[in-house]
Amino acid sequence: MLNFSFTDEQEYFRNMLQDFAKKELLPNYTKWDREEITPRHLWRKLGELGINGLRIPVEYGGSGADCVTTGIAAEEIGRGDFNLTYAVMLNALIGEIITNHANEELKQEWLPKISSGEKIVGIAITEPSAGTDAGGIQTTAVHKGNEYILNGEKSGISVATVGDAFIIFAKTNPELGNRGISAFIVPADLSGVECRGYEDMGNIPIGRGSIYLSDVAVPEENLIGLENKGFAQVMNGFDLSRLLIGLQCVGAAFQSLDETIDHVKARHSFGKPLATYQGVSFPIVTHYTQLELVKWQAYRGLWLRDQGLKHSKESASVKWLGPKYSVEAIHECLLLNGHYAYTKELPLEQRLRDVIGLEIGDGTAQANQMVIAKDIIGKEYRSY
Questions:
Q1: 184: β partners
Q2: What's the CA gap between 222 and 164, in Å, rounded?
């Protein structure tokens, strides 16, 4: 039997988040971008609402929510403040990695602080010469005594300038390629860690930048899971984060459509509301339809994950088309709102800048198409 309905608890959760996003997030969405501030007080507020710890077990201060419920949070927070959705998406990925693979001490130390919003933790895989080919990272971790010594550079890392710690991926056995990668929790205040921010086009409050590691001594107990198993640990997590990213982008796009529909109903041209012209209504209908298709593919992927079923190709399709269709929709909304939308008085230009960033992060369109091709054509025909 097919059932596309949410539970009563999920509907209550959605309604609560809609109200919160509209009243407390949306009015200040552009403020943090203009002032170049990461609103840590809102990360803590989301912690109070249980948003940061949705994929963290209750015994560690989290909500222990399923993936579909986490998707609802991504969509609704994305409507209010696209950048604050990183508290959903990033924390879900990191929460699963620590919960499923870290030792008990690391769980006790970090999971409650992530859940509450007290600490912000980033994930650092990408390097200047290794993006889509994550197995090509060059950062090394050498085991000496009871420590690992890390050296290398990470680039394009979300929360690089504001993170309290990072899950760093490094080669512990360079000869094994992606089968020689390990993961470590590295506090940002360790000696030898330097973080530098970028002047990005969008996602300003996320504090994206580079992390430089120079002879950073990390206690061996900060190793997450087994040595040389880091790559396998994180790749499954990307199937979750890619679905959440799709909903994050769709949420921002749907909010833009709602605002634009209000505008074209109220604005008149040649004696009629703009909404009466098919040149206005049909593009809105096109974008609405595309976004609905992506949204339900995302929830289907999250449902599959909750059932323990394969969902990599569904996740890849959502990550490929979610940001793409959302960018196209927001761009159209900006045009339909006229020249005021090209100013910073309206949030549309910022949404466009912010969402474009996720056409790159967590897997480009081409990388996700490669995932789908491997699944439906056969991995023996893959290009890598």
A1: 168, 223
A2: 15
Check pLDDT > 80 for residue 324: yes
In 3-state terms the chain splits into helix, strand, coil percentages (rounded to 5) of 60, 15, 25
The pLDDT of residue 131: 73
DSSP line for 152-205: EEEEEETTTTT-SEEEEEEESSGGGGGGGEEEEEEETTSTTEEEEE---SS-GG
Label the pairing between strands 223-224 and 181-187: antiparallel
Token pair for 95? 């929460």
Residues 6+ apart with CB under 8 A from 320: 365, 368, 369, 372
Cα separation, 264 vs 275, in Å, equals 5
275, 261, 248, 221: which is closest to 355 by C-alpha? 248
Q: What's the whole-model pTM score? A: 0.94
Question: Tell me, what's the pLDDT at 369?
Answer: 93
Name beta bridge partners: 196. 210
Of the chain, the end-to-end C-alpha distance in Å amounts to 39
Radius of gyration of the chain (CA): 21
Show Cβ contacts of residue 48 under 8 Å, excluding neighbours closer than 6 positions.
Answer: 116, 117
Ordered by where they begin, the domains of the chain are: 8-119 (1.10.540.10), 122-228 (2.40.110.10), 231-381 (1.20.140.10)
Alpha-carbon distance of 16 to 11, in angstroms, equals 9
In angstroms, the CA 239 to CA 219 distance is 30
Cα(283)–Cα(275) distance, integer angstroms: 11
Lowest mean pLDDT among 67-76, 133-142, 343-352, 354-363: 133-142
167 touches 125 (CB < 8 A) = no
Between the alpha carbon of residue 196 and those of residues 121, 154, 241, 273, the distances in Å are 16, 10, 25, 49
Q: Is residue 210 within 8 Å of 176, Cβ to Cβ?
A: no
268 bridge partner residues: 273
Q: Which amino acid is at 25?
A: L
With beta carbons less than 8 A apart as the criterion, state whether 359 and 128 touch: no
**What 3-state DSSP class applies to 260?**
helix
